[in-house]
Amino acid sequence: MAWDRSSILVFATFALSLVNLSVAIAKTPCHFPAVFNFGDSNSDTGGLSAAFGQAPPPNGMSYFGHPAGRYCDGRLVIDFLAESLGLPYLSAFLDSLGTNFTHGANFATAGSTIRPQNTTLRQSGFSPISLNVQYYEFHDFHLRSQVLRKRGGVYETLLPKEEDFSNALYTFDIGQNDLTSGYFSNMTVDEVKAYVPDVLDQFQTIIKDISDIGGRYFWIHNTGPVGCLPYVMERIPVLAGQIDRYGCASPFNEVAQFFNQGLRNTVEQLRKDLPHAAITYVDVYSVKYSLISQGRKHGFNQTLRTCCGHGGKYNYNKKLGCGGKVHTHGKDVLVAAPCKDPSSHVNWDGVHFTEGANRYIFEHIVDGSFSDPPNPLNMACHRN
C-alpha cells in the first residue's frame, strides 16, 4: 500500500498521541492510603514524649496551642506532608493515648540515630530507639495490626488495611544525630567520616527489610547543614577561618555533604537491588542551607539565633533549653522563653526549625524541584 504525505502525517500524529496518552496514564497522581515514617526529632510527632516525658511548653504554641509531642513551636515537615496527601497527622507508634493508625504510624523519636548508640538517653541525649528498633516496631505493628483488625469493631477503625502497607509511602529523615554523636564524643571530622559507610550500610539494610515485607514507595530526606545549628556551633568551637560567610561552621557541613553523597549512592544501589520500588531522594540540605543563607529575602529576620532559649551568641544554652526555668526566691521562674514572633526565626530552640521554616522547606520540596527523580510528592509512586 502506498502512503502519501498526508497519510503519514495522520499516522505520525496518531502515534504521538498514543505515546502522550501512555505517559499521561503512567504519570497519574499516586494514592497513598497511609504514611509510615522513620526518623529523629525532625519528624517526631510524639514518640520520645510518650516514652520519656512530654516535650514541655512552649513547644506547640504557634499551631496546637499546647505541647503536641513535637520539638517545635508548631508543625513539622512530616505534618505538612500528611496534609498535602489529604491524611491526618501521624500518630506516634509509642503513644497509647488518643492514637489512630488507620492512615499510618510514626516510628521516629527525637535523638534517634541510624546506628545504635552505646549510651543512655541521659548520658548522651541520643535515643535508644535507633532505626533498627524503629524497624522492629514497624514489623511487629504490621503483623499484630492485622490480627487485631480481624476482630472487627473499633479495631477496624483504628488500624490500617493489609493492602495499605504495600500502597503506603515510607518516609525517612534520619542521619543528623549519627554525625553529631561523633562530634559530641570528641571525634574529629575525619573520624566521623570514617564510620559513615557503616551507617549507610545499616540504613540500606532497613530499606531492604521493609521492601521484603511489602514496602514499595520510599521518600528519603538527606541530612541538613548541621554546621548551621547553634547546638553544634556552641558546643564545638571552630577556627574563625572555618566559619563561612553566612555564619555556619564549614567542617561540619562538609561532613554532612559527604554523608549525603554517600546516601545518594546508596539510593542508586537500592534502585538496582529493588527494581520494583520507587525510591525518591530529597535534597533537604540545599533547601535548608538556602533558607539560612538567604533567610531575610524569604521573610526570616533571624537565621541562626534561636527563638526559644537563653544566653550566648545564639540565644542557646545546652543546660537551660527552651522553656527552661530556674528556682529563685522559692519559685520557678521562666528564663528560656520564646520570642514574640517565631515565624521570623528559622531556628526554634538551637536544634530544631520553627514551623515557619518547616513550611518553607516543605513548600520547596513538594513539587520535586529538589528530588531525584524530580517527581513531586504526589507522583512518588513512579520510578522515574
TrEMBL record:
Which family does the entry's similarity section mention?
Belongs to the 'GDSL' lipolytic enzyme family.
Question: What keywords is this UniProt entry annotated with?
Answer: Glycoprotein, Hydrolase, Signal
Descriptive protein name: Alpha-L-fucosidase
Question: What Gene3D superfamilies has UniProt attached to this entry?
Answer: SGNH hydrolase
* UniProt keyword annotation of Transmembrane present: no
| Signal peptide feature range | 1-26
Q: Which organism is it from?
A: Hibiscus sabdariffa
| Superkingdom of the source species | Eukaryota
